[in-house]
């Protein structure tokens, strides 16, 4: 999806992707990355996610990038005084290793799956260029029958994750959970089965 689509979503506040609590994968799997205290964590396509707050409170320096000034402003209003979070307003694809700075880990929930197929390869090439060998990623994808609903969120199956990341990352599935009941709007849109898959990726 291109920028105007997302600006319109935020202007109309059609933000069904925004969750009222941090994603459960953080509580369950973040510690398995075994990051040192104070590690720097990057959250691409961040929205105003509470994941940013969870990561900062876990002792990380958190840097997020979000296209919409509405989202960034709402985050600042909703989390005054929350320290350790550098949520920047801008285009992910304009970040460079210099402007982003070194990162130890990435949390990707609703970022890769927000993008249509043609943009995913560019996204992965770019995020790989922003990372370094040994950078770890916790990646959450959605799996459903794509013909049942037009994304976003898009279905991204394991074979695609292998194809996108496999050349430069070691990939491990940590969990695959049926989650349809948590996404009533996707049921309304015709989806009859939905799973989230959580991966740990390690850049080689
Ligand atoms: C599906 S939402 C997910 C937000 C967040 N990860 C969450 O879990 O709530 C995708 C977000 O990415 C933002 N976005 C889309 N394309 C972007 C880009 N090229 N650069 C930065 N942000 C972008 C959108 O404005 C939107 O807030």
- What is the chain-wise order of helices and strands? HHEHEHEHEHEHEHE
CATH architecture designation: 3-Layer(aba) Sandwich
Number of domains: 1
Strand content: 15-25%
Structural class by SSE content: alpha/beta
Radius of gyration: 16 Å
* Helix-residue proportion: 25-40%
Strand order of the largest sheet: 3-2-1-4-5-7-6
Structure, described:
The structure is a single chain. The mean pLDDT is 97. The protein has one domain (3-9, 22-203): 3-Layer(aba) Sandwich (Rossmann fold). It has a seven-stranded mixed beta sheet, sandwiched between helices. The longest helix is centred in the middle third of the chain and has 14 residues, at 117-130. The protein is built from eight helices and seven strands; from the N terminus they run H-H-E-H-E-H-E-H-E-H-E-H-E-H-E. The chain is α/β, with parallel strands linked by helices. The protein has helices at 3-11, 24-29, 50-57, 69-78, 97-100, 117-130, 158-165, 184-188, and strands spanning 40-43, 61-66, 85-89, 105-109, 136-143, 169-178, 195-203. Bound molecules: S-adenosylmethionine (SAM). S-adenosylmethionine binds next to strand 2.
Short description:
The chain is α/β, with parallel strands linked by helices and 204 residues long. It is built from 8 helices and 7 strands.
């Amino acid at each position: 999806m291109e920028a105007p689509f997302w600006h319109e979503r935020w202007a109309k506040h059609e933000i069904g992707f925004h969750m009222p609590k941090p994603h459960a994968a953080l509580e369950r799997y973040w510690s398995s990355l075994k990051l040192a205290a104070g590690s720097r964590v990057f959250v691409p396509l961040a929205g105003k996610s509470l994941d940013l707050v969870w990561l900062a409170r876990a002792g990380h320096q958190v840097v997020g990038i979000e296209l919409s000034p509405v989202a960034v402003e709402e985050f600042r209003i909703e989390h005054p005084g929350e320290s350790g979070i550098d949520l920047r307003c801008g285009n992910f694809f304009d970040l460079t290793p210099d402007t982003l700075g070194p990162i130890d880990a990435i949390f990707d929930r609703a970022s890769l799956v927000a993008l249509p197929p043609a943009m995913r390869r560019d996204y992965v090439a770019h995020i790989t260029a922003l990372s370094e060998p040994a950078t770890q990623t916790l990646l959450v994808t959605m799996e459903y029958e794509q013909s049942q609903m037009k994304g976003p969120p898009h279905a991204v199956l394991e074979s695609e994750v292998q194809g996108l990341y496999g050349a430069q990352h070691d990939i491990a599935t940590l969990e695959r959970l049926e989650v349809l009941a948590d996404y009533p709007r996707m049921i309304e849109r015709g989806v009859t089965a939905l799973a989230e898959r959580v991966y740990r990726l390690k850049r080689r």
